[in-house]
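Design review, sub-item: ligand-bound model
Attendees: FS, YL, KQ
YL presented the inputs for the sulfoquinovose-uridine-C1,5'-diphosphate complex:
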Amino acid sequence: MKTLVLGGDGYLGWPTAMYLSARGHEVAVLDSGVRRQYDHELGSGSLVPIEPLVDRVKAWREVSGEDITTYVGDLTDGDVAYHAVRSFRPDTVVHFAEQRAAPYSMIDRKHAVYTQTNNVVGTLNLMYAIAEVDPDVHVVKLGTMGEYGTPNIDIEEGWLEVTHHGRSDRVLFPKRPGSFYHLSKVHDSHNLEFGCRIWGLRVTDLNQGIVYGQETEQTALDPRLATRLDYDAVFGTVLNRFAIQAVLGLPLSVYGGGSQTRATIDIRDTVECVRLACENPADRGEFRVFNQATESFSLVEMAKVVARTVPGGAEVEHVDNPRVEAEDHHFSFAHTALESLGLEPHLLSDTLLTSMFAVIDRHRGRVDLEALAPAVDWRRATDDASTTAAARV
Ligand code: NAD
Ligand code: USQ
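KQ shared the predicted structure:
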């Protein structure tokens, strides 16, 4: 199977590219390198040092004997999407290549517009390229559990059977997300579902929960194959941040009361879920949605797991919530599709956290403590936060 991984230089794209390559896929990666530019813009960076993409690919060839074809380009340029699809002729395109931080999208108008343009236009360009060059290509698109928000009903896998005034229909599950980033994913999902109806595209939308962890079987083979680990308040995600704060002996920063509940997944399951989706494609014209998350926890529960696992324990600190989000809410979601394809989930366990603590401890000297403090305020609407004294960014 030929698989093109868009966003193949990112936190998840790079381990996925290697995982698929190790499982016999002929893999190409495409990336613009923009994630590394956000680091320069924000003055932050990965806790674990990462190699340039070209050196990663070279190291993978040395370690595994397998080649990964590399494309450097920005998907918002339609020619880039067309060129990659025409020249590589993939069976499957795995699409990770988006701006993925909710706080980044909430910095100011410029970052909200950038996020939605980058994500929605990149996906549209990809859809056109596939529809014109080869509509048989299966698109495995990374969506997010946050598309649903926190509805007061159980969350289904993408679709909902509705009976209204005596008539019934199957509709896309109603979405009420909590950031302009999460909204960009909703817009993508609608565009992709439309592409399935008009061009007969085949799409799997993976509504993924918050990923935690840093090592997969392949990244651990050689330090040059490491993937990034973000800890700053813009790109760092909650469990990774708690693990880093715990190792540094800092309190774990629970935003608000901490009863907010979120879906989670281990990075080792992310790569396996993507493989399962690729190797069991959607039908022509089918818009298929899988909830790619294995567990859910309240923020306080996440902090407790980390605090009880880290040697010496950790304090939990409730900080003013910079986001606008429901704290006490219902949260129950279906996640049977990937399990029925054979996923055997790794659950949030002491084993993973212990191996993460060791990785973090090795690189603890690289942490910039200032970058840990939340500085993006959901309530403030401003054109350009760099002109606002209160903003770090
Ligand atoms: P990441 O930022 O580390 O990786 C995304 C990659 O895409 C980066 O290397 C970036 O340079 C590239 N990219 C962005 N825009 C591009 C463009 N226009 N053209 C070409 N390349 C572009 O993010 P990640 O954590 O690996 O997430 C990957 C995907 O998974 C995202 O779509 C994200 O929304 C989704 N996701 C992530 C998580 C998580 O917890 N990390 C959870 C759910 C869903
Ligand atoms: N939070 C804290 N303390 C922190 C950081 C975050 O309590 O130090 C809270 C937030 O308020 C939020 C929750 O933790 O309630 C999750 O925040 P997050 O930054 O870990 O996750 P989120 O913004 O939702 O985004 C991340 C990824 C995104 C992906 C999403 C999956 O950055 O790409 O789409 O997780 S999901 O949340 O299921 O939509």
